[in-house]
Amino acid sequence: MNASFNQEVQKLYxxxxxxxxxxxxxxxxxxFAEQGxxxxxDGSKLVGxxxxxxxxxxxxxxxPIPPFVTKVKNIRILGNDTAILHAxxxxxxxxxxxxxxxxxxxxxxxxxxxxxxxxxxLFQNTPAQFHGRPELVVEMTKELMEIV
Length: 148
Fold this sequence. Notes:
- It is built from four helices and six strands; from the N terminus they run ααββαββββα.
- It is α+β, with helices and mostly antiparallel strands and 148 residues long.
- It has one domain (2-145): Nuclear Transport Factor 2, Chain: A.
- Strands 2-1-6-5-4-3 form a six-stranded mixed β-sheet.
- The longest helix is centred in the first third of the chain and has 20 residues, at 2-21.
- InterPro entries: DUF4440, NTF2-like_dom_sf, Steroid_delta5-4_isomerase.
- It holds the Pfam family DUF4440.
- Residues 9-120 form the DUF4440 domain.
């Protein structure tokens, strides 16, 4: 059961990342539970599909947001219907070939299965700056560049 759940949760996460990479605000917002929470890189806290959608639309319309490069680090199943996924993420700015370490992040997703469908209850994108530990920034960037 855990292997199947892990795959389902990883697929949920990947659909969220794919929607970001396609600049698809509706696709992102639709993956959240009705009162799901998104905490952005800048600390913005959005609650519910409508608020998430209204926040993402102008970002995608008005800003050249680079796509994510991600690596799932682990998935923990908590009971029969809840899971936590942790991933690392980086971005390659337009016209560049290397990940910009200044926007590396830890991503945490809490998923709950309701009515036979996995939904996002929490997605948090936290800067991975490792203040005073530049070797950790280099290590994370190198790990992500292996995917590119």
